[in-house]
Amino acid sequence: MGLLDILLGRTKPVAPDLDRLFGLPSAAITLEAATGFVPTGSGAVCFATVEGAVFEQTHREVQALLDADAERDGPPVRLTRDDYGYSWLVSERTPDQLPQLVNDLHAVNSSMEVNGFGPQLLCSLAGFRNPAEDRALALVYLYKRGTFYPFAPLPGEAQRRDNALELRVRATLGNDLRLEEDLTRWFPVWGAPGL
């Protein structure tokens, strides 16, 4: 990083470290003990919508790879598009299969990266729910930052989030995951599949 970068406030981009996703199962144990949130078995990878034959081939390969998993229960991996124009590759597992869900998310990210679609990758998330309070929570991995952050939409509220819960989760998981320090990067993922 040069003097001009420092003066202009530019920072060196962090290289994505997809292996950080493998910290989610141990973080889930901490999260459940401290807050009552348990995995839902749902997860998704978000990316800027890509068109073309190469992407379609990559999507088919990823889907075939994940759908061939003999342990998979539930619907196959599916591709959806949200109201904001982003694409999501969604994986559904049983709630006790968080390690397998993490493998799915890692495989999707890795396949897209290897096939040249790394710049389109935005984030991955794993869904959690507190059954006693009927509350949803996502642990979101920012691909380009290599960090996680919690996202907690308020139930029944139109696009409002529970900032106090998000900060409590951050304090709880500080030793388990590399959390995003810059709160302005805790982007809302309204209506994300898997949440």
From TrEMBL:
Name the UniProt record assigns to this protein: Uncharacterized protein
Any one Pfam family match given in the protein's UniProt record, by short name: PspAB
Superkingdom classification of source: Bacteria
InterPro entries: PspAB-like
